[in-house]
Every structure is written in C-alpha cells, then in structure tokens.
Amino acid sequence: MVSQITRGIKISVGTTFEGTYFKNHRIHYAFSYHVTIENHGKDSVQLTSRHWDILDSLNDPETVDGEGVIGKKPVLKPGETHTYSSGCLLASPFGAMRGYFNMINFTSTRSFRVIVPTFKLSAPFALN
C-alpha cells in the first residue's frame, strides 16, 4: 500500500491482481485498486473529479479524466473517510497508475488538487 498527504487529505492505495482473460483475441491482465481518502484537515471538502495516468509496460500511457469516483462526489468532513474500489486492464503483467483528485474546500470555496501517489500493478506469477 502507498500513501501520501496533500493539503491535509491522505490518499492510500492498495492493489490486487484479479487474473487474466481473453478479449478481442488478446490476453488482458486485470487489476483492482482500493482507494482510501481521509480528511485530516479542519475544513469540509468535496471530491469533484479525477485524473489517472495508466502506465502499461507494453503500451503507450493512457489518460482517464472524469467526474467524481465510481459515480460519486463524496463530501468529507474533518476526520471522515471515503473508500472505494475500481479496476483496470493492462496488456502486460506490469504497469502502474498515478493521478490526482480535484477537490473543493467548502470554507474557502477554493479548488485544489490532491495527488494520488504512483502505485504499481504487477501480477505475482511474473515476479522473481
């Protein structure tokens, strides 16, 4: 698990290799990732959007932008936590993801960016 704190918001990410399967006559490696967002600050905040850079050892990087996370725009009061899980497919058994969440501070009404630290995606059978 990796963690990082940006402006009082702690992001922790753990990953799981889910298996392989064929799609469009090619093998794909499925990974899930589990994100915990903790508000260690003194103000309530809301996650409004996300940005991901998905790095696959065999393909060009892919960028994904979207509103919220898994269809939600969670509000976190001081001391609250939001957890969610999602996933991605890679063409190889190795890769990584990194990104950020755009958030709004309800006290100042200012937007800010919270960094999601780079986390590795690796199939255990491919490691020495």
Automatic annotation (TrEMBL):
Superkingdom as given in the UniProt entry: Bacteria
UniProt-listed InterPro entries: ApaG_domain, ApaG_sf
GO biological process, one term: error-free translesion synthesis
SUPFAM superfamilies tied to this protein: ApaG-like (SSF110069)
Domain ApaG: 3-128
PANTHER family: F-BOX ONLY PROTEIN 3 (PTHR14289), POLYMERASE DELTA-INTERACTING PROTEIN 2 (PTHR14289:SF16)
Official protein name in the record: Co2+/Mg2+ efflux protein ApaG
Species assigned in the record: Flavobacterium agri
